[in-house]
Design goal:
- By secondary structure, the protein is α/β, with parallel strands linked by helices.
- Helices cover 61% and strands 8% of the residues.
- The protein has a five-stranded parallel beta sheet, sandwiched between helices.
- The radius of gyration is 21 Å and the shape is globular.
- The protein starts with a helix and ends in a 6-residue tail after the last helix.
Length: 275
């Protein structure tokens, strides 16, 4: 069923607060696919639990399931039309998107928060990166980047190991979570466990108003928002890596001589494995 028709069909059976959600969705269908649950709740002037009830009332498991259906309702048509003009157009489209996301990322940098995050990581006893899906790959990049300047950190894919690491953290440790949506249950649960254990939390996300920001001590914002049909997009990845590089440059600047020495040592450690 067409999404607008579905909402209109269920509308009389919704509570007044759920109808406020329905009204907001009907007015902003094309924008809602990029909204976090927190943002939609704020726009509709209701609580997040009301959003979840609304989604279930109209036949979805939850907010992300609803957003996926909403994106499929209109997003695929837009995607098909944008890709049908020929290879030159999509090459230019991706290039322009990549340039734009870097420019936007630069504007979103809050220098005071960036310096606080660098200082927190610099003084940390242990640093652990948390993320799933495409963000888990960014976590591995982060571990590699820090290692090359002599900073030890940890990043694992297995969710059970992540859980054990999170509850084993404590005062003096830093947990860093990557999540474009800020609404990734697994990542948020791990960060909450780490914080409860005494660790400081840094969130790297696109959404300033999302569940992850309520857990974090410091929030670093990225550009490159995604719809449910665009998970793992290169533009979102570019913005994550931009923020990660800023952190690494900040850390390297705390002890430039040591960072230079470690870059040379780590480069030499793999030199015999390259032709």
């Amino acid at each position: 069923m067409d999404m607008k028709a579905r909402i209109h069909s269920y509308y009389p059976s919704l509570s007044k607060s759920e109808q406020k959600v329905a009204d907001t969705v009907l007015e902003q269908c094309s924008e809602i696919i990029y909204h976090s649950v927190t943002e939609l709740a704020e726009q509709a002037n209701v609580g997040e639990t009301t959003i979840m009830r609304f989604c279930r009332k109209i036949g979805f498991k939850g907010y992300q399931d609803f957003k996926l259906a909403l994106a499929q309702d209109g997003g695929l048509k837009r995607l098909d039309s944008s890709m049908s003009a020929g290879p030159e157009d999509y090459v230019q489209t991706l290039y322009k998107s990549a340039v734009q996301v870097l420019e936007t990322s630069l504007r979103m940098v809050e220098r005071d928060k960036l310096e606080q995050a660098v200082d927190m990581i610099d003084k940390a006893r242990h640093v652990h990166f948390f993320g799933v899906g495409a963000s888990a790959i960014t976590c591995q990049d982060a571990k590699n980047r820090l290692l090359r300047i002599g900073r030890r950190s940890e990043a694992v894919f297995d969710s059970h190991t992540q859980a054990m690491i999170a509850v084993s953290m404590g005062e003096g440790d830093v947990a860093i979570g990557f999540s474009v949506s800020g609404s990734t249950l697994d990542t948020n649960h791990m960060l909450a466990k780490a914080k409860q254990a005494g660790a400081k939390v840094i969130a790297i996300t696109h959404y300033a108003k999302s569940p992850i920001t309520g857990i974090a001590d410091i929030v670093l914002l990225t550009a490159g928002k995604e719809s449910p049909l665009e998970g793992g997009s290169i533009t979102a990845k570019i913005s994550q890596l931009f923020v990660l590089d800023l952190i690494c440059l900040g850390l390297a600047g705390r002890d430039e001589a040591q960072a230079k020495l470690m870059r040379e040592k780590t480069a030499r450690s793999v030199i015999d494995r390259i032709y």
